[in-house]
Specification:
Strand order of the largest sheet: 7-6-5-10-8-9
Strand content: 15-25%
Radius of gyration: 19 Å
Structural class: alpha/beta
Distance between the termini: 29 Å
Helix content: 10-25%
Length: 264
């Protein structure tokens, strides 16, 4: 498998390799690949990023790429589903899959407290309201807003759902999208620092179509290639060589990356 995600196994779709942010586990995972097989190490937090960089330095290979995601668990699950579909020759486009997915997905969290939320920034009044046990807040990561709410908004498409380990009395399960994948409760990577929370990322489209568009020959021809490894790339640097890419041509799928909230 050309992508290894350094994250909780539960936040990664079946078919992708996931390892904890442990150096020995990561080194063993890379060692288990065919000789000189290209691979991208995807980190979802600072600890995983440090281990990914250390593993690449240990091997000293330019066919080991690095990608850092700043996304909550359900959004990681969605974009990781696209990584599984990338062929070896298109691994330099992992960032393009993330950006293209961000165009058609939205992430919300319903939380019992915003007292420790860092991004988006709650108001002073919302911090005070968090002291009351009956309050709930809706965090819209795409819009970057925090508002008082009792339920999640109505969402369509396919969704990934994660919940706190502590159950939420009175939460209406019917408000969740019907077509959904439920991740195990209490994911360690959950960013909300709240006793009770429900997080949903919904996708208006098919991941297969997103990857097919990003990797289509017509689109790839518009992209810069790395001066060193000659792979097509996306963004400022080649994920493999870490060298600056030339300014890319205009692309129909280029979009600002999703910026989530509440991470440490």
């Amino acid at each position: 498998m050309p992508v290894i995600v350094i994250a909780d196994r539960a936040s990664v779709p079946d078919g992708l390799r996931a390892v904890p942010p442990d150096r020995r586990a990561l080194v063993d995972a890379v060692a288990g690949l065919p000789p000189q097989a290209p691979v991208v190490l995807v980190a979802v937090d600072a600890a995983g990023w440090a281990e990914a960089r250390a593993a690449r330095l240990l091997y000293g290979r330019e066919d080991i790429g690095l990608l850092r995601l700043d996304l909550p668990p359900t959004a990681v699950f969605v974009v990781a589903a696209g990584f599984e579909l990338l062929a070896d020759e298109n691994l330099g486009l992992v960032g393009a899959v993330v950006d293209a997915s961000a165009r058609v997905m939205c992430t919300y969290a319903l939380v019992s407290s915003v007292g420790k939320l860092e991004r988006p920034t709650p108001t002073f009044g919302q911090h005070v309201a968090s002291l009351w046990p009956s309050t709930r807040f809706l965090v819209d990561l795409t819009a970057g807003t925090v508002t008082p709410a009792r339920e999640l908004p109505s969402l369509t498409g396919i969704a990934a759902v994660a919940r706190s380990a502590t159950t939420w009395r009175g939460f209406d399960e019917a408000t969740l999208p019907e077509n959904r994948i439920d991740l195990p409760s209490g994911l360690a990577a959950a960013p909300w620092r709240s006793a009770r929370w429900v997080e949903v990322t919904a996708v208006d489209g098919w991941i297969d179509d997103i990857v097919a568009t990003v990797t289509s020959p017509a689109h790839v021809r518009t992209l810069p290639t790395c001066r060193s490894c000659t792979r097509p790339g996306h963004g400022a640097r080649c994920v493999f060589c870490q060298l600056p890419l030339d300014a890319p041509a205009t692309s129909a799928v280029a979009t600002p990356a999703l910026t989530p909230g509440g991470h440490a």
